[in-house]
User: Fold these one by one.
Assistant:
Number 1:
Amino acid sequence: MLAGLRGKSVVVTGGAGVIGSAVSRRLAAEGALVVVADLDADAASNAAELIGGDAIGVGVDVTTPLGAQASVDAAVQAFGKLDLYHANAGVECMVRTVADFDPADFHRVFGVNVLGAFLSAQAAVRQLSAQGNGGSILFTASIAALMGTGGMSIYNASKHAVQGLARCLALEVAGTGIRVNSLAPGVVESRMMDSLGAGLGALAGADGTTYKGRMQGAVPLGRYATPEEIAATAAWILSDEVPYLHNEFITVGGGIAPY
């Protein structure tokens, strides 16, 4: 068992998604009190029901101040406090060149990935600061925050922005006992990666299956990550196993070196 998770109250946004649900399950298995927060209220409730125990599911829209605050309020109302917050909600972009990109998709992606992360962090840090007992905030960034990919300009730019937000927040709360870090998955078995792979394959003149094979070949470990592998790293970062881990960007990419 990881130290410092049992009895901790934690919010996971995008908690009904592939990575979010895996993180929620892992934290609950470690004894945490989990709020599965997702735009899809039914999916959030179903995910919490599958976890069982004290887990609860709530429908929130983190792209609004009220929605982000509601995710924090749910934890406080259910468990009397907030200890940990995983700002994980995110969406992929349409795969298009910059010249062909639809500005509406820019607003959609940045609305969830950047504004949603900002408002979530704002609500979380206010609550944690008011409690005065420290805590931990984790952002889901992406290995895309370290590189460029043709056809994915808006997604990559949004994840660059998330990492900039995390860096600034970490400096602002340094010394308060609140740790801030970012988790950067590489390619993960998920609906999102399938969608991006199909689009990137089409852009390269290949089908999604062929493109996935190329992507797997580019990963030194030779495969996509499982959601559970990402969740294990998220739980470790949030835990007390690494109390000195702050303002860090942790990649989980199977050996991909994007630098």
Number 2:
Amino acid sequence: MAENSPANGAANPAADPSQPQLNLQKIYTKDISFEVPDAPKVFQLQGQPGVELNLSQRVNTLSETVFEVVLSVTVTCKIEEKTAYLAEVHQAGIFGVAGFDQASQENVLGTYCPNVLFPYVRQIVSDLVQGGGFPPLYLQPINFDAIYAEQMRRRNETPAESPALNS
């Protein structure tokens, strides 16, 4: 009778509930909006377009170990102070996260999950902009690790430092 054991004698992490586990259960688009408020006049404007990107994220707890992460991106393009287009995408994913300590779990939800969702947002925004009659817009990669580190730095600033700023 043959034994079923992992190669190299390594333990099977799926069989050990004490090991941290992360799994992607679903990716979906929660909301999409695209507006061209001054069409068709905007297509006759000749100025240099200015693009503004706003990014946000929220985490909704579905159960003790299951979370919905929603990455929201809003792109506003203006030409000659007129809004050429406004694209907004809320891309979501359901992630199973178990066996992590609180700080590691927050890090996974704040960095890994948005990194998984961002390529979907990038493609949708590009398709919306091009389908709206504008040149393609390719969003540059975003360093979610740096954004998360900055959020943690701000969160950890002590209140004792704040009054010195007001003096």
